[in-house]
Amino acid sequence: MQETKYSSSVSFETTHRLSSRELEVLKLMAEGQSNSEIAAHLYLSHNTIKTYVRGIFNKLGVDHRVQAAVVALRQGLI
């Protein structure tokens, strides 16, 4: 199994710039919920969740949901 290395440029400060709502979305993403499921759970639109997900990716410096979950776990965010 190949281990994927993530950018060490994700700092403690950067990850803690996530809003409380972004952290909530990130937790649900890490649980494996789809954007539609997250939207229904939080009573938000699908497009709003997509915006949150893009913001999370940008702030964490990742490109995929699994990468975001790994970074969040390693940083103790979730």
Helical stretch count? Answer: 5
Shape: globular
Total number of strands: 0
State the secondary-structure class.
mainly alpha
Distance between the termini: 25 Å
Question: How much helix is in the residues?
Answer: 55-70%
Radius of gyration: 12 Å
Mean pLDDT: 87
Q: Helices and strands, in N-to-C order?
A: HHHHH
The percent range for strand residues is: under 5%
Task: Tell me what the structure shows.
With 78 residues, the chain is mainly alpha-helical. 62% of the residues lie in helices and 0% in strands. Helix 2 (20-30) crosses helix 5, helix 3 packs across helix 4 and helix 4 (46-60) crosses helix 5. The chain is globular, with a radius of gyration of 12 Å. The chain starts with 11 loop residues before the first helix and ends with a helix.
Structure characteristics:
62% helix, 78 residues, globular, mainly alpha
